[in-house]
Design a protein that fits this description.
Layout: E1 9-13, H1 18-29, E2 33-38, H2 41-45, E3 52-55, H3 62-75, E4 80-83, H4 98-123, E5 130-134, H5 147-167, E6 173-179, H6 188-193, H7 195-204, H8 213-224, E7 235-238
Length: about 250
């Protein structure tokens, strides 16, 4: 590693597994001091001693204050915020309850916004502030049974663009990574129990495979660094060419 983030501080949410864990590890490998946040304490413990951890439930409004407090006391400030934590509110249209909708909106949209807002005083003190939100290819497309999920992922892309426009004059760069079919805790059961799903996505993907969390974490680390200093307000699709084929 070139340690391009030496001396930087970072928060990564949803970091106990999957994309969040891969991101936390890559940011740390590049020299950043990382605070990994998740509800799953066991997964956080597996990250190792080099990454600071915090157990927090982003569906709980009190979690925002606890994350900011930890960043101030344990990191001493903040340069990079990765809003990765997410849930999969799914179901047929006539089965989507208000509770499912509200939970999806709370975690996938409101929590990233609230955490970003709460971190602004620290980010404004950074000379290289970065916010990276994690959306989905469903930030631009749609799928049956995923109306609520799709809506929240469209929403996080919109939030990214508006925040980038507002915060850009202050030198704060904001982008959204849009993963395709990735093997994560959210998708593992489907891919491991449904050969049809694996065949569907590997056939559509021009690179011929399901993505790995590191495929996304590496792009997030790039967006967090100086080489991406002139990229802002963008939804970066990272899907192995999945969406090239109809």
């Amino acid at each position: 590693m070139s340690r391009t983030l030496e001396g930087r501080t970072a928060i990564a949410t949803g970091a106990a597994s999957g994309i969040g864990a891969a991101t936390a590890k890559r940011l740390a490998a590049e020299g950043a001091t990382v605070l990994a946040v998740d509800l799953a304490a066991e997964g956080l413990d597996a990250l190792g001693d080099d990454i600071a951890t915090l157990v927090a439930d982003l569906s709980d409004p009190a979690a925002i204050d606890s994350i900011v407090d930890a960043a101030e006391t344990r990191l001493g400030g903040l340069d990079i915020l990765v809003n990765n934590a997410g849930v999969l509110p799914a179901g047929a249209i006539d089965e989507l309850t208000d509770e499912i909708w509200e939970f999806g909106i709370t975690v996938n949209m409101l929590a990233p916004f609230k955490l970003s807002r709460a971190c602004l005083p620290m980010l404004r003190q950074s000379g290289a502030a970065r916010i990276v939100n994690v959306g989905s290819i469903l930030s631009r497309y749609g799928d049956p049974g995923l109306t609520a999920y799709t809506a929240t992922k469209h929403g996080i892309l919109g939030i990214t663009r508006a925040m980038a426009a507002e915060l850009g004059p202050e030198g704060i760069v904001v982008n959204c990574v849009q993963p395709g079919a990735i093997m994560t805790g959210m998708t593992r059961d489907t891919f491991e129990t449904s050969p049809e799903a694996v065949e569907h996505y590997t056939t559509k993907c021009v690179l011929g495979r399901i993505g790995e969390p590191e495929d996304i974490g590496d792009v997030i680390a790039f967006l967090a660094g100086d080489d991406a200093r002139f990229i802002t307000g963008q939804g970066i699709i990272v899907d192995g060419g999945l969406t090239l084929r109809s």
